[in-house]
Amino acid sequence: MNMQDDLEQFRESWRRELLDEYQQHVDERQARNGRGRRLDGGEHDRRKKRRKFGEMTSDYDPGEEEDLDECKPYSPKQDIAAEALSIADGLLNNANDTTSSRTSRSRDDNSTNIGNIADSLDTTDEKSQQPNDPENLLETLIADLDDINEIPFFDIELPRELAMKIFDHLDMEDLKNCAQVSVSWRSLADDDVLWCKVCHKLGYHTDVPPSDKDNWKGVVKECLEEKSRLRSNWKGRIGGVLTLEYVKGGILSCVQSCDSDIIAGYSSGSVKIWDMKTNDSHSLLTSHQAIGLDQKSTPAVTHVATNRSVAMATYRNGDVDVWHYRDNSSIIHNFHRDEDIHCIAMAINDAVIATAAGHNVRVDAADGNGYWKCECRPSTEKPITFMKFVPTARSSSSSDQHIVMTTDSAMGGIYFYSIKSLSNQVMKLHQLISPATCLDVDSQLIACGVNATGFQETFTVKILDVEKGAVINSLHGHSWGVSCINLADSPPNMIITGCRDKKVRVYDLRSGERPVMSVCGHAGSVTAVQMDDWKIVSGGHEGMLCVWDLKMSSKLWETYARHPVRYCHFDRTTLISAHVPQVEVQYHEDEFDIVKHKRQRGEIRVYNFLLDQTTEGLPSICQSSYNEPIGYNYNIRLAVPYDDVI
Fold it and tell me: What is the pLDDT of residue 24?
């Protein structure tokens, strides 16, 4: 009540102040017009006409009467004071026709304006008590100055904190619509905290807190514009291509990546890592180089892996090296396996690794002080060929890690092992009659490709639930063995497979066991696949790398290299492909020769679609105004460079 009384007193004092100022203005003008000397008859008549003309204008000054002899009358204007007073009267009384009243008033109506203001002083209380009157402009002004602490929701007003809780449940489209309702709703819908959450939900700047940026709505707009530009560049193959420098004297044998880091192993025993954010690269010091072993005696690298903290490599003689490459390039852990290492696995977020040699698995992890040790040695009935860690939350302990393993021999199975278990025995989730051909795991599901053993069986993909440990679906439709599978990087409820029958198939786990899409464009078996919400990237044994449109089921573009695609991975802006030769012969005849055996070295290509190199640096005369969709594998704007030349 006190705030309402203060507001009414402020309104009344404002009206009276405006009334006093107007009355004082009128008195001063009358006194000024009454001053002057008596004139003779002719001069008096001329001066009277001038004064009458001056009274019809809003800028009349008696001191300038001598300059009015040559003036001609024009349309009269409203007095400035009367106009300002009428506007204030409309603001105070919530007049909706302020603009029209301003044009219809004249100077002769000034006396009636005084009466209207006096009458409005008496009727203000009556108007303020009417519940159906809309909120006047003065109340809106006061509410805006008070940072809009009360938000109108139809017939009620809510505190800003409670309104923020309601708006917190809206998505981006709803926030844009709410911003068009009123000024108060716009101030709430444009809040940085709400748009920061929208930005995080879209997958942008997830590690940035709200306080680090000022205009989160503008940040979301920039991210969406960049997304649209990236999609256009992906479809038109517009961007930069970088071939990573190879190690002299070695042949590429294995490649892996994590985020912006790429690690590669060579037949010469060298291990090299690239950071694509900083465009930096360096070779890691291996255990064989540390002891001064001759390069001709150095075993070849067979497997490499990296995550956000450590990197590892295995060698043909059973040695294993582990580096903490972000701090230095020296080895932090090393051990030896007596048998050939068939496969390796590394936790996504933790310093935990696993190596499989024959029936036995060795799990090594770092403790809280950074010291590495062997955690356990589980074993299976059959030799292990594929092994994956189940993805877990970041910064989880090594005892919370789980491993999924498969075998390649008949009467094998899919095995599950928890590191925190006291025994070294693994749990068999599913019995496989045929050998497993590929494996992929996410936090909830396990996908395993299985060969066919008889005429009545088909090549299938088994889908198992991690928690239940049971088969929940079997995917059919393959005419040959499944050579690769991707579940972890696919959209929710989607899975993509590559087959030896040269086809790529997409499955929706909600729609059944048959593929929802199948494309064929490779000349050999498909060796690597990945998909997102609108495109597919696949690599073949013949060296072809293809990009497909998921909605249209058509090929966007393709590129070719001499060697098979053994690894491909893409994110929002980059695509990494590794073409690994099949030859396993080491060439040490001349390690300084960078031209010899070029066809057998293999290569790693990095495509950056955030760069637009088709028009960058070109003169304007070489750029076309052609605005149609880009052609196949080239920018059509360069095809007709003289469109605008006359």
Answer: 79
